[in-house]
């Protein structure tokens, strides 16, 4: 997400909408459909996809249709190739439903094996995050009078909304008031901890979290994020051969994963102690700590609390890029699925290791790279492209 010059938030949704409006005959967005598999021909080439045209077909949807027998899937054929961008959970699910993945996993669900690729669904990675929440001695003036809602019909807007209409103020930002990068160990080449200050009560993601976090105007959260995880032991597996079922997702956090010496956990404990040290120096501006609170003081207590409460929302790396002769790789350096023709993956699943602190910008970068690769391969031999990169961007 970025903010335009006039204070409007802009992200992938706006980009897709702009391209669809400008090129309606070239970009068709079809909502309420669920892709069920990639269709391969006898030469292991992707020729299209099958999909269900049914609202609420996927069982991850809280309003999922309970009917076990929906209409038969539709088939759409690809003129050139198929590109999967379903994310770290659903891209490996789609590949396995299509017969591309670990042989034992496919055979376990009775799926004919088209390509035995052991890396599909493995190497799942994410960040660790926790929030240290305090009650302040006074409300924050910056959010006083802000409802964080659009005005109801017939009611006047709050002051922050009026500011936003003029392209300024709190609603034009992501809400953070300060950010700190820090190394958990002096010998690291780059910082691996990011600490974000928020004038809100933020303890993780759950339905309704954004409204709960803003009920009080005297809350402050240090959100701690650990980058560069050593844990590559997560995995996405099939729950069944039914494409409407969600996959089984297990990050194998902490002691279950590959970070056996606990370096990630130690870094998180250090970061919690670091932000508590900043709070102590704030003196009487802070009334008390609410979360984790006085019951969590020793390093061992903090370790237990982090293990119980840490979350992440940057899942990635389940179809890693690498050498085609490496069985752990799923795509090559041109985003092509190894062992399959006319099929690419372009999403967060292709990273071998989770990059940076926030994964969105790296995803945009690989998307630009993939578009260059695809355009170059689509051009006739010896015919240079006349499309400049800047011309492909819709303003």
Automatic annotation (TrEMBL):
Protein's recorded name: Glucose-methanol-choline oxidoreductase N-terminal domain-containing protein
Annotated keywords: FAD, Flavoprotein
Gene Ontology terms for molecular function: flavin adenine dinucleotide binding; oxidoreductase activity, acting on CH-OH group of donors
Cofactor: FAD
Family: Belongs to the GMC oxidoreductase family.
SUPFAM superfamilies (UniProt xref): FAD-linked reductases, C-terminal domain, FAD/NAD(P)-binding domain
Pfam families for the chain: GMC_oxred_C, GMC_oxred_N
InterPro entries on file: FAD/NAD-bd_sf, GMC_OxRdtase, GMC_OxRdtase_N, GMC_OxRtase_C
